[in-house]
Fold Aldo/keto reductase.
Amino acid sequence: MSAIGMGAMTITQRPDADVAQGVRAVHAAVEAGITLFDTADAYGPSGEMGVNERALIAALREHPDALERVIIATKGGHTRGPEATWGIDGSPEYLARAARESAQRLGLDALPLFQHHRPDPRVPYAESMGALRQLVEDGVVQRLGVSNVGVDQLQVAIDILGAHLVSVQNEYSLPQRASEPVLRLCEERGLAFFAWGPLGGRAAAKSIADASAALSGVASRYGASPQRIALAWLLGRSPAMIPIPGASRPESVRDSAMSPSLMLDDEDRRMLDGVVQ
Ligand SMILES: NC(=O)c1ccc[n+]([C@@H]2O[C@H](COP(=O)([O-])OP(=O)(O)OC[C@H]3O[C@@H](n4cnc5c(N)ncnc54)[C@H](OP(=O)(O)O)[C@@H]3O)[C@@H](O)[C@H]2O)c1
């Protein structure tokens, strides 16, 4: 798996999304060597399920060899309602159906990585995890991930899913480090930690340079964008860390893809550790 992934949500997130530009962004990611693409059945601008999964698979199919090189990591457990409202369903029946529908949409016999999107407070977490395990046993999915979890929930997932669990996807960025204990548990247990919102989300990503004078100062010293510096900082936080920056423009993807080769020196790293919290 590449050192960073691409958050594909961003290519269809807005009702006025430029689909052709999103396709170019996916192709730019493949060409830059990115092999992990994150999506979810619930992503899209509307209440319709599967919009983002369909857009991602169509873009990948248009690129020669892409499908042989990449891992599509989708998610299930969120629902969409009228007027694009968000809901949640962690029941075993719903998760079993959601995974099968995602596999069908993506044209895959088995999902390479199926992530439980978010714990459902109305369903004991162990029940949702039991449903995920069953999906592996039934051959619907190859590997499992969980998302938006605390340490206690992650421990339940580890106990029930064992070696089938390979990844955790939580929010983590310079300004948002609440998942630090989860990151450390991932490190201990050999799980990948996919950082969502690694640039602080769409609104903040645009102004991340303004948000921190320290970040802009470091960026100008390295001749790199503040976003690339922020991703390089994240990569240095832990060997488990795999940021999945979202992008709707090919330029963003190309720039982010250069972050793994940018080495921050210790002084700059320490300064960034101490700011934008
Ligand atoms: N598990 C969950 O509950 C959950 C929740 C939210 C998101 N996610 C996943 O995480 C992914 C990333 O999160 P996010 O999209 O919310 O936030 P983000 O990655 O922090 O920010 C995305 C924004 O950053 C901009 N950007 C990316 N790289 C850049 C660069 N090198 N230079 C300048 N701008 C850059 C993009 O701009 P352009 O659009 O202009 O290219 C995009 O609008 C999503 O796409 C999704 O797959 C998961």
Q: What stands out?
A: The first helix runs from residue 19 to 31. Residues 7-10, 38, 147-148, 169, 196-202, 205, 225, 227-228, 244-249, 252, 255-256 surround NAP (CB under 6 Å). The domain at 6-201+239-247 is CATH 3.20.20.100 (TIM Barrel).
